[in-house]
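hey can u check if this looks right to u? its 363 residues, i copy pasted from the old doc so theres a chance i mangled smth
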Amino acid sequence: MDTTIRASLLFLCFVTAIAGLYVARDIFTPFALAIFIWLIIDAFAGWIDNLSPKIPYWLSLTIAVLTVIAGIVGVVFIIADTANSVIDQAPRYERRLDEIFHWAGSLVGQNDLSITSVIERVNLPQKIQAGLAGFAGTVQGVLSDFMLIAIYVAFLFAAQSSFPKKMDDLFPDVQARKKAAMVGARIRISIEKYLGVQTLISLMQTIISFGIMWALGLENALFWSLVIFILNYIPIVGGLAAVALPVMFALVQFESFTPIAILAAGLFGAQFIIGNTIQPKMMGDSMNLSALIVVLSLTLWGALWGGVGAFLSAPLTVIFMIVLAQFPTTRWIAVLLSADGNPDFEDDTDDKSQDKIEATPGL
């Protein structure tokens, strides 16, 4: 096929795929989250199962599922407790906001500037009412998606035992079956490694940040630690927001600039040190994506799927890179996406992939 025709077809396929992902985002995003939750639970259950030969897999899976459920319940309780605390302290926060607005107004020659005047100028009550209606709709959508995700995860585990048989039926040729199994194993291992590494890094940053916030007396430090832990899963932007949000809250709580400056320096220092020492090495081993591609993928997936796309941008891009590397026509795209020009995930990943393939029935 002529090079120009091939390039045109690839471009049309790319545009069609992007349009399809955007139009069907309400269908794809819950299922994508379900797959990643399934992988997390299955990997955790496998880790528990490997601790002792006396632990059956069903017990390991039960422990993993209960742990995830307990974590979700804990998050709900933390959010509810924080909401009650904010409501109780609302008068004090309002007074502090008045002081901040009055100070800012004096700098621009508007000495009558206050939180009340700002609310009146921007017609905040109506905007809050509209925002609450939108928020209620969002919560309803999240709860609906959560139930759908839970159903997806349950059926993924139910169908897990039939995957080897389906591989045999899809690929009667042994060599083609091994290649397909190798690609699937590479994708799974890369996602598991990414999630494991990102969880470890987020946990490190969360513990350090909680220590700093607790030492300085920042209110609702546990809630802000939860926010930091979640936001650190979003590349680049998440780390910046994880520093900015607690510091903005500190502006309302503290009347002195010193604890605010110490908090900002401590949180930023933790993000900077971990993000420039431990994270690049660990992420390089698990993702093999160039820094530019990480930023572009964050922008693209965020535009397509919103917060879910931003959350899953890196592993989704890794999946596409591995798949594109298997075809001569699209391999050059995978090479451009990779950090070192080798999108095949050789070395230790291949050893683990081979172990999984040899353990798969029918191969």
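Confidence is low (pLDDT under 50) at residues 357-363.
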